[in-house]
Amino acid sequence: MNYWLMKSEPEVYSIHDLEKDQAAMWEGCRNYQVRNFMRDQMKIGDQAFFYHSNANPSGISGIMQIVSEAYPDPTQFQEDSEYYDNKSSLDHPKWLVVDVKHVSTFQQILSLKYLKSIDNLKDMQVNRKGQRLSITPVTTDEWNTILKLSSHITNN
DNA sequence: GCCAACGTTGGC
DNA sequence: GCCAACGTTGGC
């Protein structure tokens, strides 16, 4: 059982969209390191923080669960998709997705600024300068610390 | 909109 | 295989 932090721009897809949809395919990842996380380390039942990037404020907005193994991202084959990749083929797909389901939405975003102020989280990847991976591992300690911080503002 | 910090591409 | 140029991410 692993923990993750997964970024999405809320303008593109937010925790509220996921709450409405209940489940979603985490499409469009085009970074090899992130793909390898999905391929090699993500397991059904893993949990992830939903992180709003490029947002106001940016921060953790809720929790979701991984509900599939990694499988080929269909958008890489769709010529009309912004995620289309003409160097990929059905035989050798380059990019993968996982399915996620909504677990909870925080009533308030745990902002990046706030996360950075927490001593136990000072080594967390999302708090590091220049850290741009859209999916990063979260340690059990970090997960529990953030759960505690969120517990009094989490609904459902 | 700026720009730092990456990742990727491609010439050589 | 090096590395400069370019593209992208994402905080601010």
What does this structure look like?
By secondary structure, the protein is an alpha+beta fold. The protein has one domain (3-149): ph1033 like fold. Helices cover 22% and strands 28% of the residues. The chain has four helices and eight strands. It has helices at 15-21, 32-41, 112-116, 140-151; strands at 3-8, 23-25, 47-52, 59-66, 71-72, 96-97, 99-111, 135-138. The strands form two sheets. It has a six-stranded mixed β-sheet. Strands 5-6 form a two-stranded antiparallel sheet. It binds a DNA duplex (12 and 12 nucleotides) through loops.
Secondary structure blueprint with pairings:
Layout: E1 3-8, H1 15-21, E2 23-25, H2 32-41, E3 47-52, E4 59-66, E5 71-72, E6 96-97, E7 99-111, H3 112-116, E8 135-138, H4 140-151
Parallel strand pairs: 1-3
Antiparallel strand pairs: 1-8, 2-7, 3-4, 4-7, 5-6
The structure holds a DNA duplex (12 and 12 nucleotides).
Q: Secondary-structure element sequence?
A: EHEHEEEEEHEH
Low-confidence stretches: none
From the 3D structure, determine the CATH topology. Answer: ph1033 like fold
Mean pLDDT over the full residue set: 93
Q: Cα distance, first to last residue?
A: 23 Å
| Percent of sequence in beta strands | 25-35%
Q: How many independent structural domains?
A: 1
Q: What is the CATH superfamily classification?
A: ph1033 like domains
Strand order of the largest sheet: 2-7-4-3-1-8
Number of strands: 8
Put simply, the count of helices is 4
Largest sheet: 6 strands, mixed
Indicate the CATH class. Answer: Alpha Beta
| Assembly annotation | single chain
Share of helix, binned:
10-25%
What is the radius of gyration?
15 Å
Structural category:
alpha+beta
